[in-house]
Amino acid sequence: MRILIGISHPKQVYMFKYFIKAMSARDHEVRVVLVEKEITGYLLEKFNIKYDLIGKNQPTLFKKILNLTMWEYYTLRIALEFRPDIFIGQALPHFAHVSALLKKPFIVFEDTEHVENLHKIVLPFTSAIVTSDCFGTDFGKKQVRFNGYFELAYLHPDHFRPDPSVLSKMNLSKGDVFFILRFVSWNAIHDVGQKRLSFEMKLKLIKELEKYGKVFISSETALPEDFEAYRITVEPEMMHDLLSYATLYIGEGGTMASEAAVLGTPAIYINNLRTGYIDEEEKKYGLIFSFSEVERSYDNILGTAIELLEQEDIKGIWAKKRENMLKDKIDVSKFMIEFVENFPDSFSKLKK
User: Fold this and answer.
1) Does 229 share its domain with 194?
2) CB 240 within 8 A of CB 155
3) pLDDT tens, 45-93?
4) How many degrees, rounded to 5, is the angle at CA 132 between CA 251 and CA 245?
5) From CA 24, how far away is CA 47, in angstroms rounded?
6) Which of 47, 94, 243, 335 reaches 20 to 30 Å from 178, CA-CA?
7) Are strands 267-270 and 248-251 parallel, antiparallel or unpaired?
């Protein structure tokens, strides 16, 4: 089987990392088409995954639309040369349209509900839409669900064990109290019209947290000079190792909040955009605390953080919550491999 995979975000590198390795080992031919965003290319190279670069992510919706024709042209050229049997990715317009033109199946692995306009131009061209069972949107007859989160495609215990060497690289010791703050760029399609934490609130939060431990910042964009000393300097591919050892995550990024949750690190998510997996991790498993725009206030966020820090053995408590979650969930990479390798029979079986 020839498989063409589209990647446009660092998370997707991790999502498909084990899938690509496993399918290649099973003698399937896999090729990756990349629209570069942040460190996507860097990660692919670190994981020895070859790719075709067709463009770079654009900061505005208008520029994304302008570049779509170019992305579709290059995707078509690659597909005509590679002759894929199947296209795979998240909701990628260039994959949707090229796969339809070539009359090949396109499987979408989707985890984001609040990109309705994107879904309108992508999903009519798909063969299957694969979501978690907690996904909040019903896409109808093309949709199948699995019991897990896409973060468990790469952070499931069968695939991930934290590397303790990350601590010495950040001048930390095991058991040290430290915090990871995550600030996003707010230029994704689903970020249009959203508001962010103010500089003043971020600064106050940092100063208060420093009373309890070290503060490190992960950011999609350049940091203000006042924050630069807090930037995480460890190699990007070790971010999950650091997150696993962190005492607490606080941030605007939903992906990293969910990653913290499945790793057993308490997470405070500050964003009015909600997803089914964030809601379930919060309400069913108690792994995350969410603050929407209406609730967004310095006192609420800091108060929750302090309340968590005052609990004895907070990491032990979260480890038990994580175990409860893992008992319910599947190895998502294993599911993806079996679903694609046996498609379309796998789709029909899940629809029964």
Assistant:
1) yes
2) yes
3) 999 999 999 999 887 878 888 999 999 999 999 999 999 999 999 999 9
4) 40
5) 13
6) 47
7) parallel
Q: Say which residue the tokens 């069913």 belong to.
A: 284
Greatest extent of the chain over all pairs of C-alpha atoms, in Å: 60
Question: Token pair of 171, please?
Answer: 């001048």
Its domain, for residue 110, covers 2-156+330-351
User: Are the C-beta atoms of residues 253 and 273 closer than 8 Å to each other?
Assistant: no
**One domain, residues 146 and 219:** no
User: Alpha-carbon distance 326 to 285, whole Å?
Assistant: 10
75 and 133 in a common domain: yes
CA separation for the pair 96, 148 (Å, rounded): 25
Do 101 and 228 fall within a single domain?
Answer: no
At 347, list the tokens: 């789709």
Do the bridges between strand 106-109 and strand 128-132 make them parallel or antiparallel, or are there none, so unpaired?
A: parallel
Check whether residue 294 and residue 191 sit in a common domain. Answer: yes
Q: Which two tokens stand for residue 284?
A: 């069913």
Q: Strand locations in 153-238, DSSP E?
A: 178-183, 214-219
Sheet containing 86-89, strands listed edge to edge, beginning at the edge strand earlier in sequence: 52-56, 29-36, 2-7, 86-89, 106-109, 128-132, 143-146
pTM greater than 0.90: yes
**C-alpha radius of gyration, the chain, whole number:** 20
Tokens representing residue 24 in the block: 């290649």
Over range 120-125, report the average pLDDT.
96
77: domain CATH number is: 3.40.50.2000
Do 184 and 100 lie in one domain? The reply is: no
Q: 145 and 28 in one domain?
A: yes
Q: Residues 102, 9: one domain?
A: yes
What's the domain count of the chain? 2
